[in-house]
Amino acid sequence: MSQPSRFVGLANYVHLVEDPVFWLSLWNSFVWVFGSVILQFIAGFAAALLLHRAFVGRGLLRTLTLLPWIIPGVVVGLIWEWLYQPNYGVINDLLIKTGWLHDRVAWLSNPDLAMGAVVFTNVWRGIPFFAIMLLAGLQAVPEELYEAARIDGAGVWARFWHVTLPLMRPIIVVATATRIIWTFNYADLIFVMTSGGPANATQITSTYTLMQAYSNLDFGYAAALSVVLLIIMLAFTAAYLRVTRGVEEVG
Amino acid sequence: MRRRLSSASLVERLLGGPVLWTGLAVLTAFALGPFVWMLLTSLKDRQELYATPLRYLPEHITFDNYIEAWTSPITPFSRFFLNSLWVCSVTMVATTAVSVLAGYAIARFRFAGRDTLLLIFLATQMFPSVLLIAPLLTQWRALGLIDTYQALIYSNFSFTVPFTVWMMVGYFGSIPRELEESAMIDGCSQFGSLCRVVLPLAAPGIAATAIFAFVVSWSELLFAISFTTQTSMRTLSAGLLYMVGQYEVQWGPLSAGVIMSTVPVAVLFTFLQRHLIHGLTAGAVKG
Question: Chain B contact for A231, CB < 8 A?
Fold first, then answer.
């Protein structure tokens, strides 16, 4: 199992540059990260706005809606594998009953649909994260500012656009940056659901790294891939913080 | 003017009424629907589970799937469960003890390398855990720790501590220093003032740290599949994956396993969620 390792210089990095699956995985990572985070952000913001209003049973509902976020990634993957199951899955059944689909669809083994299916699962899992973060931000906005805006004749939309959003910029920046980094590195869900298949359609860089280490036992190549992951993340974080700070100065 | 006002209040009334309730209904259904479906699945017998057309509600509720998952000799879910419980509990206690002491020291004392230390802690959060597997595996092999609880506890611990130290530094930072100073004037030692004054005030932060450590190690998969080889040493996540790998997927026992894996974190979370949310978001809101 463990062969003696020897020094190979940059061989692993040369291999990486010439490896078409690596480049494909980078593109897939891009789709995976931005698809997941943008949808999570929009839905999470909507959820935070809803949960911010006072209503009976709010505490209970907040706890319940957070559940998808705290359960293990393996559990999330298995739940959705069962929901997507072509013959006995409830998603196909519901879509056919409501007339959206005519035939059963193999969500996770169709190369055209698999990425969308895993992203959707990840969105389900990530909405609570944004909901809590943004809810904390909403609660920090002083009520007087809304009062003042209302007196000045600002409608619902204007208050959201000119009071809520600008005041929440710091927490939005922190939450999206954290989430982008985390999603980029996150391998469990895809590893469980598709192992990067079919035909590498859902192979993102972190699952590819994991497969190299776990299935091929090629730790050298896995380490080279990890270093590239790390460099991309550092570059991204630096750029993201610079851009968002720039926005703050202009605003 | 009057028309604008009335249309604005109509929008507001809609947002407070029908839109709010519809939104909440959709949100709840979306968040909980998959769990409900899993629960229904786990209560069906084999025949109902694979019935065509699909049957939504189980006609004869049965707990056989739970019994099978819990007692199966090939995929011993009870063993996975207890493994996870032990690994996560020890990780939780160790993480909490270390991050409380380290967080307090960093928040209150000025010492050489303090800022660098904090920065290094933050930087480790960026490392993909995949990156750590190869070096840790070599290390655990050399130390003869493969297939031991220690390997999992040490790995989880090293993964949770940097973040929880940050959480605790933020928390202690928000407790006024004057409180300890007056305790010390009254004759408390530094450690005495930590125990008697600061710790009670930091209780919510400590609870957040503890639950964070527990939930993270409960979910952990990569370390668990890399550092254990025997079935009897698998944790929940690794064990569930192993259940999938055996023969064809048995959705009955598997769905029971999924429900049983969800319950402990859900219960813990319900009791401590207020503290956790406060602890996780405190730093971000201030920033």
Answer: no
